[in-house]
């Protein structure tokens, strides 16, 4: 951890929702495929339509509506942090904008992506949706032929496990015990689809996503035994 160069880390978080508002709007083939895929999610009395709200957990049945990214803009104490969000109904545009950001990131630097539970969710979900939409996969997400230790992925959940395989600690809980502002003070992941399809308030979702990005950066600092970023030193850049 001490050798990690913070200026080379791009902190990300994605917000996902089911690819369609309702199960009934799916094609018959997709309905059958969701029936199979969602079997382990359902209680005995539930059908596939009853758990469609959870489809956003799966890249084959969900889509990205917001991606927020953050970087340290100054490493001098007190550090400064900058966040930018890409969001909207055009998922392909969100993915392209992120790809451009990655390709232009501090040329010549050894870029690392960091997220909480990123190895199990954010990174593979983003890669799969990129391929499904026919967009160019950024090199950092193209892991074909790479060994686990060759991946430029950082995962604060994995770091917090300290080698334990069973443990899962939510970002909200980790922030609470580490004295970091709770990023779930307005929304949590289970409410995102309702806000998107029901309220059509994607800017609210982007603010929630940005809080998660900042929280991940703060967690990484605490894991390194360093001071947190002061709230007044966080800059949010306008929407793309």
Structural overview:
This protein is of the alpha/beta class and 240 residues long. The protein has a single domain (6-19, 61-237), classed as Nucleotidyltransferase, domain 5, CATH 3.30.420.10. 32% of the residues lie in helices and 18% in strands. The protein contains 7 helices and 6 strands, in the order βαββαβαβααααβ. It has helices at residues 28-37, 91-103, 122-132, 156-161, 171-178, 192-199, 202-223; strands at residues 9-18, 62-74, 80-87, 112-115, 153-155, 234-237. It has a 6-stranded mixed beta sheet with strand order 5-4-1-2-3-6, sandwiched between helices. Strand 2 (62-74) and strand 3 (80-87) form a beta hairpin. Helix 5 (171-178) crosses helix 7 (202-223). The radius of gyration is 18 Å and the shape is globular. The chain starts with 8 loop residues before the first strand and ends with a strand.
What's the topology here?
Blueprint: E1 9-18, H1 28-37, E2 62-74, E3 80-87, H2 91-103, E4 112-115, H3 122-132, E5 153-155, H4 156-161, H5 171-178, H6 192-199, H7 202-223, E6 234-237
């Amino acid at each position: 951890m001490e050798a990690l160069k913070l200026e080379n880390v791009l902190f990300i978080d994605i917000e996902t929702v089911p690819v369609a508002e309702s199960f009934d709007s799916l094609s018959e083939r997709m309905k059958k495929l969701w029936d199979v895929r969602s079997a382990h999610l359902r209680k005995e009395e539930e059908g596939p339509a009853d758990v469609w709200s959870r489809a956003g957990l799966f890249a084959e049945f969900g889509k990205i509506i917001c991606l927020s990214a953050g970087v340290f803009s100054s490493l001098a104490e007190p550090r400064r942090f900058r966040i930018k969000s890409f969001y909207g109904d055009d998922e392909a545009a969100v993915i392209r904008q992120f790809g451009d950001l990655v390709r232009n990131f501090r040329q010549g630097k050894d870029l690392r992506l960091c997220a909480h539970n990123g190895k199990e969710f954010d990174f593979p979900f983003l890669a799969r949706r990129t391929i499904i939409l026919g967009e160019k996969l950024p090199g950092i997400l193209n892991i074909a032929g790479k060994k686990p230790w060759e991946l430029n992925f950082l995962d604060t959940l994995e770091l917090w496990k300290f080698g334990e395989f069973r443990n899962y600690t939510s970002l909200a809980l980790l922030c609470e015990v580490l004295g970091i502002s709770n990023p779930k003070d307005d929304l949590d992941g289970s409410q995102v689809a309702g806000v998107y399809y029901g309220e059509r308030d994607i800017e609210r979702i982007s603010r929630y996503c940005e809080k998660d990005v900042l929280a991940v950066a703060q967690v990484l600092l605490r894991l390194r035994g360093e001071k947190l970023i002061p709230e007044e030193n966080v800059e949010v850049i306008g929407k793309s």
